[in-house]
């Protein structure tokens, strides 16, 4: 069952060209993909050099299973996995040349109805990325006090109708399924918002998902810890999808004394990617680099020597080196 789902796991990665170009991948280095998801970015990193190592993290067992099916066979010596929240990861002394995180949910998490992330499919109100731990959305919706619910929907959903939605939820609960909840929310907002650009339940579902998975707190903790896991000169790149996340990335990168910010303004998707993949329209990529100390200059010299002999041309990715049996990697 798990394998069948894993095989069907299909997520379209965003900002791949930009991510790989900025990472400037070096041979004989170790990389960390803190949100491997469908394995798209992980695979691109692995395809850049034959003698690098990648540790792929995800808190979702379904994602880890899918990436194992997709990549473990091709990269048995290079790829290893860790399932859990990236904020709880312990590198045990490893120092990475690059760390990436691509936040939020993957397309399969949204599309597998039983996960309860989407208001488009009827499913129990779950929304946990890691289904082995934590509270579900149903527990929040059916048990929190009205004021706490309104604050949650307002802060994490940036929903202007938070108070009336919270009131309606409390009046009509218990809710069992995603669609029951979505219908109640739709009936609460003024008519002109019911058929607007986004479904009226979008922001409330975002707020519930953030709380269920403690997304912002995990992100804050991760950004505070991860610079310590980088080699001097190593880079960290984070892709976020809404302003609450982007604000955290921007401020914590800027305020971390180990880091220099590389991207003063976030990198966004080019028009061709935005047309091909609407999800990329809200994606923002920020990069920072671990500062060099005097003792680190030796490392920097070695790195530039290696870079000189390393043709890290992104076009290479299209017609990648041997062995040819590996999946072809397209950066569209
Ligand atoms: C947008 S997807 C990543 C897609 C991936 N970059 C790709 O190219 O296929 C986000 C993934 O991050 C995972 N995730 C989100 N928050 C996490 C956290 N705090 N710790 C570990 N994984 C997390 C989700 O389970 C999901 O699989």
Topology, pairings included?
Layout: H1 2-7, H2 16-23, E1 30-33, H3 40-48, E2 53-58, H4 61-72, E3 79-83, E4 96-102, H5 107-111, H6 137-143, H7 146-157, H8 162-172, H9 178-186, H10 191-194, H11 202-212, H12 215-225, E5 230-240, H13 243-255, E6 259-261, H14 271-276, E7 284-290, H15 297-308
Parallel strand pairs: 1-2, 1-4, 2-3, 4-5
Antiparallel strand pairs: 5-7, 6-7
Helix pairs in contact: 7-8, 7-11, 12-13
This protein binds S-adenosylmethionine.
Essential attributes:
332 residues, alpha/beta, seven-stranded mixed sheet, disordered C terminus, binds S-adenosylmethionine
Verbal overview:
By secondary structure, the protein is α/β, with parallel strands linked by helices. It has 15 helices and seven strands. The protein has a seven-stranded mixed β-sheet with strand order 3-2-1-4-5-7-6, sandwiched between helices. Helix 7 packs across helix 11. The longest helix has 13 residues. The chain is globular and about 60 Å long. The two termini are 32 Å apart. 42% of the residues are buried. The N terminus and C terminus are likely disordered. The chain binds S-adenosylmethionine. The site of S-adenosylmethionine has 23 residues, from helix 3 and strand 2.
Q: What best-fitting shape do the alpha-carbon axes yield?
A: globular
End-to-end C-alpha gap = 32 Å
Low-confidence segments, given as residue ranges, are: 1-7, 308-332
Report the strand count: 7
Helix content: 40-55%
Structural class: alpha/beta
β-sheet strand percentage:
5-15%
Tell me the major beta sheet.
7 strands, mixed
Describe the strand arrangement of the main beta sheet, using strand numbers. Answer: 3-2-1-4-5-7-6
């Amino acid at each position: 069952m798990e394998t069948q789902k894993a095989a069907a796991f299909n997520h379209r990665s965003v900002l791949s060209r930009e991510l790989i170009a900025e990472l400037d991948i070096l041979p004989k280095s170790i990389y960390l993909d803190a949100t491997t998801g469908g394995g798209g970015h992980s695979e691109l990193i692995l395809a850049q050099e034959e003698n690098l190592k990648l540790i792929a993290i995800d808190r979702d067992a379904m994602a880890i299973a899918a990436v194992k099916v997709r990549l473990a066979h091709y990269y048995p010596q290079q790829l290893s996995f860790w399932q859990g929240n990236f904020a709880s990861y312990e590198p045990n002394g490893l120092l990475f040349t690059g760390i990436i995180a691509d936040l939020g949910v993957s397309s399969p998490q949204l599309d597998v109805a039983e996960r309860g992330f989407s208001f488009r499919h009827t499913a129990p109100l779950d929304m946990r990325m890691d289904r082995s731990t934590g509270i579900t959305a149903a527990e929040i919706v059916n048990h929190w006090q009205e004021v706490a619910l309104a604050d949650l929907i307002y802060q994490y959903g940036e929903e202007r109708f938070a108070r009336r939605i919270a009131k309606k939820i409390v009046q009509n609960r218990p809710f069992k399924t995603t669609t029951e909840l979505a219908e109640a929310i739709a009936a609460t907002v003024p008519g002109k918002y019911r058929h607007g650009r986004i479904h009226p339940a979008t922001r409330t579902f975002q707020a519930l998902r953030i709380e269920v998975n403690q997304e912002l707190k995990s992100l804050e903790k991760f950004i505070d810890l991860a610079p310590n896991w980088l080699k001097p000169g190593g880079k960290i790149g984070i892709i976020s999808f809404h302003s609450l996340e982007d604000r955290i990335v921007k401020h914590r990168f800027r305020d971390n004394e180990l880091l220099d910010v590389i991207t003063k303004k976030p990198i966004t998707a080019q028009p061709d990617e935005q047309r091909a993949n609407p999800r990329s329209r809200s994606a923002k990529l920020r990069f920072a680099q671990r500062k060099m100390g005097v003792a680190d200059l030796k490392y920097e010299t070695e790195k530039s020597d290696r870079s000189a002999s390393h043709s890290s041309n992104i076009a290479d990715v299209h017609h990648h080196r041997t062995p040819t049996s590996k999946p072809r990697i397209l950066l569209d």
